[in-house]
Amino acid sequence: xxxxxxxxxGSVQTGGSLRLSCAATDGRYLSGCMGWFRQxxxxxxxxxxxxxIGAGTTYYDDSVKGRFTISQDNVKNxxxxxxxxxxxxxxxxxxxxxxSQCTTINGNPSPxxxxxxxxxxxxxxxxxxx
Length: 130
Hints:
Distance between the termini: 39 Å
Number of strands: 10
Low-confidence stretches: none
Order of helices and strands: EEEEEEEEEE
Structural class: mainly beta
Mean pLDDT: 94
Oligomer: single chain
Helix content: under 10%
C-alpha cells in the first residue's frame, strides 16, 4: 500500500487561496482513486475531493464544489488540491489517501468511502483566521 504525505497547508485569510500537495513517500506510483479529506477536532473525517488516477475523473463534496480543484500530475506522481475562495468552514486538517481498488467515480451514491482509503498521511493544517 502506498504511503502518502501532505504538504502546503498554512494560514489564509477568508477568500484566499492555497494549494495542497500529496506525494507518495515510498516510491510507489499513485493509482486507483486519490482523495482529499479533512477533519476538525471532535468531528468525523469528511471527504473533500476525489480523482481517478489516469482518467482524471473528479468528484467534489458540495461544500467545496466550484471552489476547490483536485488534479494529478502523473509525471511527478503527485496529486494537488487547489483551494480558492476559502471560508472559515474550510479550516481543518487535510489528509490525502488512496483507494487502490477504485476504478470508477460515481456520485450516486457518494463515493467518499473513507474506510476504503489507505496510506493516510499525517495531514497538513489549514487555518482561516478571522
